[in-house]
From TrEMBL:
Quaternary structure, from the entry: The complex comprises the extracytoplasmic solute receptor protein and the two transmembrane proteins.
PANTHER family, sorted: SIALIC ACID TRAP TRANSPORTER PERMEASE PROTEIN SIAT-RELATED
UniProt keyword annotations, A-Z: Cell inner membrane, Cell membrane, Membrane, Transmembrane, Transmembrane helix, Transport
UniProt family annotation: Belongs to the TRAP transporter large permease family.
Pfam families membership: DctM
Full protein name: TRAP transporter large permease protein
InterPro entries xref list: DctM, TRAP_DctM
Keyword Transmembrane part of the UniProt annotation: yes
Function, in words: Part of the tripartite ATP-independent periplasmic (TRAP) transport system.
Amino acid sequence: MSVALSLCLLAIMVLAAIGTPVAYSILVGSIVYLAVKGQDLAIAGEQMASGLYDSFVLLAVPLFIVAANIMNAGTISERLLKFCVATVGRFRGGLGHVNVVSSIIFSGMSGSAVADAAGVGRIVTEMMRKSGHYSRGYAAALTAASATIGPIIPPSIPMVLYALVSNTSVGYLFLGGLTPGLLMGVVLMGMNILYAHRRGISADEAVPLSEVPRLTLQAFPVLLMPAILLYGIYGGIATPTEAAAIAAAYALLLATVFYRSLTLKAFYQVLVDSARPSAAVGLVIGGALVLNYIVASENIGTMIAQALTGINVSPLAFMFGINLLLLVLGCVLDASTIILVIIPLFIPTCRELGIDLVYFGVVAVVNTMIGLITPPYGILLFVINATTRIPLAEIIQEIWAFIAALIFALILMILFPDIILWLPNIFGYAG
């Protein structure tokens, strides 16, 4: 490791340790590297500008954020919840199932775990609390865990970011995430069934069957959105970025014309609330692009690949080792930083070992989503705490069982790649 790279990493770690935002820490560390190397500091700006403005796929990120915020601002989330209560709320531990199923459906519209947790997740948590059957810590923990499904089932903002650094097809990544997302939902519902039996929770009062068609009809335009997105992408009608624009336009159409629940003032607030996270993601991407230039200059990815292939590491051992590392990093780093900065280091090794990049990408994204609920940094824990005022200690106490369930699902994905690659192969993916 060169002196310049050592000083770069030291600057990033020191700045991050004193509370500097990760994006700024990376940018400052990168400038330190360029200065010590005697290179033109304008390279940092050139890498950011070329990377951000040449990547058409990145436009999908703010568009999906806008779509999710429009749905949360209108009555779309409430109509979705009423449909879920009518269909799965009648079973034992019903509101817990509603929590998971609503996240699965909402994930097919937003691609954001935070949007899921802060929107429909906040509402269903309050419903679980008021029912009297669930502790508030359990309700919040299940909401945080189910929100991790949001970026796995397409569309997915993290998979767009992974596609940026790996040159992998966004469409095939989206397809690869569908079955794993459903698997995550199944294991979480399994944990909820165990909880309901252990606590002796009876079935909630069921919505009359005569009401189900009416509630389904009310929610049908919302349920149609994932189908429109998937048909648009895989039918060859729209690119993933164009599909994101369609999602935002369709959400706006539903909220303003069909349901008439979004005022002009509320729409302005949606745009403001969408601009902030979009800008934050843009800064992280910009810093990561400069850092990736440094990593390429130092030839780190190739060095790691040669070192691992030199000691004859099997693909399965590599996958387990990397995922263990990512789980640890997820405790202290946000998902965007891991995807944009850490994961690119191992892509050359994947190529050397013959590991499919769609398979690797989906597994890595699932791993980083588990990091969103892993203490001490788990951002979803803080989002739920802020939106529900449930003490963080109570949420953390209940979250461990769900982390274990999601890690079990992750292990299944690592051991059985067809869980991920089955759908992409059906649609012509050749690896």
